[in-house]
Amino acid sequence: MSDDFDTAWLGGLLGFQLRRASAAMADDYAWFAGPDRLRQSQMLMLGLIADNPGAHASTIGAELRIARANMVQLVGELVDRGLVERRNSPTDRRIVELHLTDAGIEAAAAGKRFLAEHEARMLSVFGERQRQQLHSLLRRLADHDTVSDAPRGKPSKGLGPR
Amino acid sequence: MSDDFDTAWLGGLLGFQLRRASAAMADDYAWFAGPDRLRQSQMLMLGLIADNPGAHASTIGAELRIARANMVQLVGELVDRGLVERRNSPTDRRIVELHLTDAGIEAAAAGKRFLAEHEARMLSVFGERQRQQLHSLLRRLADHDTVSDAPRGKPSKGLGPR
DNA sequence: TATTGTTATACTCTATAACTATA
DNA sequence: TATAGTTATAGAGTATAACAATA
């Protein structure tokens, strides 16, 4: 590559490094999970349902920040694979409770093992202290809501939502 | 929110925190940039072209990890907005050199200011040392290529590319 | 043959509006 | 009226294959 190309500004951007890190994680996931894999979101769903049997679809979606409308197909695929059952709540018939089938219990356990290996691979360059630092820093970054806080800033061009 | 919901496993995943952090960055960008905004990738392109006048489209795409095919529309929109000019290389007529117009020079400067404010907002919860740590950790995570290294691991289910 | 740009296409992810059935 | 789930749809982002022009 021609090394007279100036990437100093680009490389100094947090957003760009975040994007690169996410891509590296996605590449590792896709490669080691193989072609007929569950999506990341679905593996997370299985794990959550395993820890919270009968969890409401709306609750799972809220935790994973997946819109209700988009939950339908994702859960539907898990049902089609025979991993998850939808059961109507006896007390509130609007609500769908999610349960794992026997195959789903196995898949959830395998998914957790896979994700643990996946993260161990990615984090193998770090020591324990650095892993904790990275986790803590990302958590604080994610929890920092600059939009709802809405300090009535003066944006460079337009302002407001959507 | 019902607090008898177990999210300990989910919250401990690096990938989930990375996803949450990326979402927080995207929300801030979208809110403060407004509706008719340039996309993040396009703002990065303007900055790169500003630092490297006449940069080849293929080089820009490689730096930002955007496929050639997808560069066409992104650059085309910048051309349509009157910010960028495509010029054929005199020495290799296959190559398109990207240049900023006068309006593009202004837009690139405004974009850099906007991104600086954007990152400053997101990073305002951190001290200088923590910002450097986060940046360094993300960079190392992104540079850790577990796929090309391909240690011939034993994936949990399938293996192979795509 | 290989590379750059281009076109066409498709798949994923995300977001919104509108509908239903329940409450 | 408000909520959970659903349907349909649209917009981004990303990926591949095939082609023309050029090297």
Average of per-residue pLDDT values of chain A: 91
Order of helices and strands of chain A: HHHEHHEEHHH
Which bin fits the share of residues in helices of chain A?
A: 55-70%
Work out the largest interface and the residue count of each chain.
A-B, 85 and 85 residues
State the separation between the terminal residues of chain A, measured CA to CA.
39 Å
Task: Show unreliable segments of chain A.
Answer: 152-162
The outline of chain A comes out as globular
Strand order across the largest sheet of chain A: 1-3-2
Number of helices of chain A: 8
What does this entry look like structurally?
The structure is a homodimer of 162-residue chains. By secondary structure, chain A is mostly helical. Chain A has helices at residues 8-11, 14-33, 40-51, 57-64, 68-80, 102-123, 128-143, 146-149, and strands at residues 55-56, 84-88, 96-100. In chain A, strands 1-3-2 form a three-stranded antiparallel sheet. In chain A, helix 2 crosses helix 6 (102-123) and helix 3 packs across helix 6. Chain A is globular and about 65 Å long. Mean pLDDT of chain A is 91; it is low at 152-162. Chains A and B meet through helix 1, helix 2, helix 3, helix 4 and helix 6 of A and helix 1, helix 2, helix 3, helix 4 and helix 6 of B. Chain A binds a DNA duplex (23 and 23 nucleotides) through residues 39, 41, 56-58, 66-72, 92-96, 162.
